[in-house]
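Why does residue order matter? Because the sequence determines the fold. Keep that principle in mind as you read this record.
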Amino acid sequence: MAKKDFNTEFDGLLREALKTTDKPDVRLDNGLKAELYERERFLRQGRAGRSISLWYLPMVLNLILFLLLGTALVLLIDSLYLSVLAAAACVYMGIAGVVITVVGIKRTDLREEISVHIKKGEQRYEKA
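Structure:
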């Protein structure tokens, strides 16, 4: 039982594609580069929009929380020394949160990681 359609044009193309060569065909290489450049250009245009960095938000919330806690402790504790000690501890924790956030910004890339990207409309990639 022999196969009739063994030497079709598609089989010839498959054999050509499966041949191993050290370098790809110049036309194929240039076509792939052009396609990659086109997609890269599209992605750059797609990112056109607004980006809001929220790196400061944990620092601000920590500072507000500990300042409110310190204020509440000063108002609720009758002893002057204990209330000042509690308020000082809260101020210290607020400043420590600011320092930790600043160190985190300097040592890592938090500004890019903690950001919201707002796009200016829906764009779709279409091959020319």
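The chain has a mean pLDDT of 79.
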